[in-house]
């Protein structure tokens, strides 16, 4: 999968492009540094196609909504607007000092019913399906997860499960978007509008994706076997020994003096973890 002309390309999951009418005028984000956020939603509908249809067209009642992407149960990907266009998915929203997330973010809708009511025949129903109206969708117990929402005011307990295909597709897309754009936030709608929104809810692994995409440093995993401890000597008059690998970590003993023998146990950047009478961290350039 790749991004070309602000559109996802080159993957069998991607459905033919069709652009939503629900766009600002002009549709583009205000500047080149945007979008810088991704907002995750559920559709509260069973079928991705229903969500796509409802996000395509301007509504007579003026309650217009759109998003950049809709992800189906099997991981199908529908794109409704290029990523350099604003869509209408966030509504009134506020997070970390910023309001109006439509102006900063890419909206990803995942086909999922959201919270469900349980019934005593062992089946679960959605509270509603926006498209199916009076005919709520049944779910079996293995399609439902019982979890509390991280927002304590949301008391719903049963949630429609996301499929692995959906989670994989969203993670892959977030990864790609963060390589192409200046993405600094991946947030749930329930985080930017907590007083009115529950999506994507407790079954979506947003912390995991956030950590993987935004915070994991992409250097090769350090193989612990590749570092062989060795003996060395202090090569400066006085060498501070600290509790951690940084000048802000507290000193844990009097400085080691010139010629002091030590064993280097481990390396972290410019720092060695060393062992003498005690163990601590020293600046590697003063050890020979
Ligand atoms: Zn939402």
Please characterize this protein's 3D structure.
The protein contains 4 helices and 20 strands. Helix 2 runs parallel beside helix 4 (206-215). The protein has 288 residues and is α+β, with helices and mostly antiparallel strands. It has helices spanning 48-56, 164-180, 189-192, 206-215, and strands at residues 2-4, 7-9, 37-42, 69-71, 77-79, 94-95, 98-99, 105-110, 115-118, 124-126, 138-139, 144-146, 158-160, 185-188, 230-233, 238-239, 256-257, 261-268, 271-275, 279-283. Strands 5-4-8-3-14 form a 5-stranded mixed sheet, sandwiched between helices. A 5-stranded antiparallel sheet has the order 11-10-9-13-12, with no helix packed on it. It is elongated, with a radius of gyration of 26 Å. It binds zinc ion. The site of zinc ion has 4 residues, from loops.
Number of strands: 20
Order of helices and strands: EEEHEEEEEEEEEEHEHHEEEEEE
Write the CATH homologous superfamily of the largest domain: Peptidoglycan recognition protein-like
Hetero groups bound? zinc ion
From the coordinates shown, what is the CATH architecture of the largest domain?
Answer: 3-Layer(aba) Sandwich
Class of secondary structure makeup? alpha+beta
Read across the widest sheet, the strand sequence of neighbours is 5-4-8-3-14
CATH class of the largest domain: Alpha Beta
End-to-end distance: 48 Å
* Overall average residue pLDDT: 91
Query: Quaternary arrangement of the chains shown?
Result: single chain
- Number of helical runs? 4
* Whole-number count of domains: 2
At the third CATH level, what is the topology name of the largest domain? Answer: Lysozyme-like
Q: Outline, from the CA principal axes? A: elongated
Sheet of most strands: 5 strands, mixed
